[in-house]
Amino acid sequence: MKSLHSKREKLMKKSLEYLIPVVVGLAIALIIRTFLFSLVSVSGNSMDPNLYNREKVVLVRQGQLKRGKVIVFKAHGVDKGATLKTLYVKRVIGLPGDVISYHNDGSLFVNGKKQSQSYISRAQQKVGTFHLVKSEAKDVSLGTGRKFRVPKNKYFVLGDNRQVSNDSRYYGYVPRDKILGTVWVFWWHEKQKLINDYQP
């Protein structure tokens, strides 16, 4: 009887030796995914030519929100057409308090300073920027001589492919609490500097 009890103890001990690292590993993976990093998929062509449809990118949950940074946000409650699980990938153009103006030639100004927009071609800057601004995009006004200020705790975002992108021109500003984090791509990605390190 003692021998049987001893065998059970040994078996339990051995099982725990294998089980504990697995449980700890799963817990660490869950923490990383919830609070630090996860993979997301780009949906659609709105970030062409820098990110492509169905391309996998890393979501950095604690990433710093800066002008020019590519972000991921929950679209539900921002865009009327978005479902509960829809995520959008866009580029931050305006931070809270920024004064933004667009000129008819595609030039972009933030707080009176012209932005380079070197992540897209000159033709791409001009074509599509002035697609109809819908009524949902409250207080957004595009065109030479027009300016608007980004409200507190909100962000003005655009897709790199201005001609097809569904962005702040259509649904207005993105609230801070909808933003999950910033996008990061691996160093071998051909547009890595325009995603990870872009400075306007």
TrEMBL record:
GO terms for cellular component: plasma membrane. GO terms for molecular function: serine-type endopeptidase activity; signal peptidase activity. It is a single-pass type II membrane protein. The keyword Transmembrane helix applies. It is found in: Cell membrane; Membrane. Its main location: membrane. Coiled coil: none annotated. GO terms for biological process: signal peptide processing. The chain crosses the membrane at residues 20-40. Its EC number is 3.4.21.89. InterPro entries: LexA/Signal_pep-like_sf, Pept_S26A_signal_pept_1, Pept_S26A_signal_pept_1_CS, Pept_S26A_signal_pept_1_Lys-AS, Peptidase_S26. It comes from the Bacteria. It catalyses: Cleavage of hydrophobic, N-terminal signal or leader sequences from secreted and periplasmic proteins. Keywords: Hydrolase, Membrane, Protease, Transmembrane, Transmembrane helix. The active site is at residues 46, 90. Gene3D superfamilies: Umud Fragment, subunit A. Residues 17-188 form the Peptidase S26 domain. PANTHER family: CHLOROPLAST PROCESSING PEPTIDASE, SIGNAL PEPTIDASE I. Belongs to the peptidase S26 family. This is Signal peptidase I.
